[in-house]
Amino acid sequence: MAKSKKPIRILMADDHAIFRDGLRKLLDAEDDISIVGEASNGTQCIQLLGKLRPDILLLDLRMPDKDGLAVLEEVNFDSLPTRVIVLTATEDDREVVRAVRMGARGIVLKDSATDLLIKSIRTVYGGEIWLDKKKTSDVIEAFKKSAESGPRRDKPLLSDREKEIVGLVAQGFRNREIGEKLFISEQTVKNHLHNIFDKLGVSDRLELALYSLHHKVID
Fold first, then answer.
1. How far apart are CA 22 and CA 169, in angstroms?
2. What are the CB-based long-range contacts (under 8 Å, 24+) for 153-158?
3. Helices (H), strands (E): how many in the chain?
4. Which residue positions in the chain have pLDDT lower than 50?
């Protein structure tokens, strides 16, 4: 008899108890998802992250005490197995862009259909990035504007190894995970990324992923 896969362990952080209760009931219906904890504010969220080390954090941007952006800024997610999906009802695109810049792997609007949220969880857990369609164009536009100040090569010359790394970054893998996949050290990955950023004129990983997607850097 085949052994069943471990469920995706979820920590929810939202200050509205009714919203958390409804979300729990929806996600508990999925065989491959397990809610392991709930936080009602940023401080509690940070405490539970260290204790539970979940696979996915569903993080509300607007919370008392410490908001979602403060959580992203304070927690070193490279030391955790946790990937972050931001749940937001905000119309402020700047907050969404900041969340993505600080490491959020997914953006889901709170009024999205349930099946989209579930799909986002599975997608981000699988190592990819998920951006709500309503927000994708805003994020891309923000990164385009931030890049207009510097020169950029239309057809940058990347080595085969650099292209491999760009592809893995675009899928959402961390430096350590990239090193393990390519059998190189994490420091070597960092060195390659420094060179890639310089060649493409990008400033961070998400901008690199978006740039590679729209400029077809990866063959």
1. 34
2. 153/199, 153/200, 153/201, 154/215, 156/199, 156/200, 156/217, 157/199, 158/196, 158/199, 158/217
3. 10, 6
4. 1-3, 152-153
Sorted by where each begins, the domain ranges of the chain are: 8-144, 150-215
What is the reported pTM?
0.70
**Burial, 1: exposed, middle or buried (Cβ in 10 Å; 0-12, 13-18, 19+)?**
exposed
CATH 3.40.50.2300 given to domain 8-144: yes
Using left for φ > 0, alpha for ψ between -120 and 50, and beta otherwise, residue 153 falls in beta
Among 73, 69, 74, smallest CA distance to 59 is for 69
For 150-215, give the CATH class: mainly alpha
Tens digit of pLDDT for each residue in 108-127? 888 888 888 999 999 899 87
- Of the chain, the end-to-end C-alpha distance in Å amounts to 41
75 CB neighbour count, 10 Å cutoff: 20
* Cα-trace Rg, the chain: 18
Identical fold between 8-144 and 150-215 = no
Phi and psi, residue 106, nearest 5°: -145, 150
